Each structure stands twice: as C-alpha cells, then as structure tokens.
Amino acid sequence: MPRDLAEVLHYFLPDAEGRASVPPGPDPASHPVLAVPLPRGDLVRSALFWNLAVAAARLAGGVRVVTLPAPEDPPVAPEPGRGPLGIEVLHAEAAEPSALAACARAAARSEGLVIAAVPPEWLRKAADLAPLLSWVVTLARPEPHEMLESYAALKRAALQHPEARLGACVFGVRRVAQAQRTFERLALTVERHLDRELVSYGMLIDDVQLSRSVVSRRPIALSYPAAPAARALTDVAGMLLEDA
Predict the structure, then answer these.
(1) pLDDT tens digits for 160-195?
(2) Which of 49, 142, 196, 229 could form a disulfide with 210 if both were Cys (CB 3.0 to 4.6 A apart)?
(3) What is the pLDDT of residues 119-164, one digit of tens each?
(4) Half-sphere exposure of 123 (CA within 13 A, CB side)
C-alpha cells in the first residue's frame, strides 16, 4: 500500500479530465489576475479571500475583487462597488464561467491586482476560464480530504492552462511545523504527478478575531490590526503582490 498522502492522491484523480487547448497569451494591456478556487458556501475560505484582498489593498491599493453574483452563503464581502481602502468589488453578470472570465478580463485592464474567486467544480470543464488560470493559488487545509480537494483544483487548472503558475497558502493550522508539513506533502504530489513546482504563499493561522470580523462584516485588518491573523494576512498579501 502507498505509505503517504502524496502516493494516494493521484489514484483518486484520473488524468482524463479533458485537456484544453493552450490558451491565448495575455492581453498586453492587462494586469495580473490571481484565481483562487473558492467553494461556494465555504464561509471560512470566503472570509480569508476577502481579508487577503483588504490586506493587499493596505499594502499597494488598487485591488479589484471579482466574484459571482448573488452568493448563496451569507455575504462576507460588501456589495458591488467601492469597499474598504478603495477595493472595488465586481460581480459577474451571470453565474457562468464565460461571464466570470469576461468580468475578470475587464477588471485586468486597469492597473493593480485582480483577485477572482473561481468555483473549483468549474475548473474541470470550463474552457472559458482557461485564460484566467495563468496564476492559481489554493487555500489548503492539513486534513487529508481537504488536501485532496486542493490538489484536484490545482490539477484541473494545470490541465486547462499548461503554463499556469500554481501556488498554495496553508490555513487552519496553529504551528509553523504543521503548515510546512502540509505544504511539503502537497508540493510533493504536484511535482510527482503534474511535473510542476508548487509555490508557497505562507500560512494563515487560526484566530478568534477572524471569526469576530466575519460576524461584524468588517475586515480583521481594520477591526483587529494587531491580531496574529491580521499580521499573517499581511505577510501572505505581501508575497502575492511581490509575485504579481
């Protein structure tokens, strides 16, 4: 029997998922788009997604967040328009891959970082999303089934966009060593089965203040700027901006 998670993951994910044609190159006038696989209804990841955008805006400004319209879960981010620190929230015109892609492409024509929330299930078959998948970062938890889902999203993104840069940020951990082990196992799986390098974007730690910020619908960087979670978010946002 396989002796580690990296050995097991590949058997659950067949290779025949419909390889897309090589997507066209980016618009020379466009700016970076960061695609984050974000399951609908996942409040924790939604909160981290939004708080990362706020942390990036505090560091550099000009951040645009692209999401689906009328989210099914209780809202974590504000309504479309200008949010905290000048963040612009944009909703796709419809809950369809082509609409999300069009919204993100339009946002990328303005200077600054664009962060797009992409439903992971769309990565399997949505060729319309391929041009947006040049840079994909998953929010990964240490539990085996969660790591399986993170690997699945990265694999599907790589199939849609063979030149995609793949990254991971670990959350739901309390110790640096646990985050390192989680990333190393995921990176080993990506290297072994996708022949790709996985880029590390650090870790986000558990913090009760993050939960309180979700309830209040106020970003933790503004409500509790000295909290450990706020500092971790700033560190991760800095890495994202550096790569952008």
Answers:
(1) 888 999 999 999 888 889 999 999 999 999 999 999
(2) 229
(3) 999 988 767 888 789 999 999 999 999 999 999 999 999 998 889 9
(4) 27
Q: How confident is the model at residue 80 (pLDDT cuts 50, 70, 90)?
A: low
Q: Which of 209, 189, 244 is nearest to 47 (CA)?
A: 209
DSSP letters of 186-244? HHHHHHHHH--PEEEEEEEE--HHHHHHHHHTS-HHHH-TTSHHHHHHHHHHHHHHHH-
Lowest-confidence pick of 27-36, 75-84, 234-243? 75-84
At 123, the amino acid letter reads L
* DSSP symbol at 94: S
Predicted TM-score of the model (pTM): 0.84
Cβ neighbors of 117 (< 8 A, separation 6 or more) are 36, 38, 46, 49, 65, 66, 67, 68
Strands (E), 143-197: 165-173
Rounded Cα gap, residues 92 and 70, in angstroms? 10
Pairing outcome for strands 81-82 and 88-91:
antiparallel
Q: Which residues of 120-146 are buried (b: 16+ CB within 10 A; e: fewer)?
A: bebbeebebbbbbbbbbbbbbbbeeeb
What is the spatial distance between Cα 77 and Cα 79, in angstroms, rounded to a whole number? 7
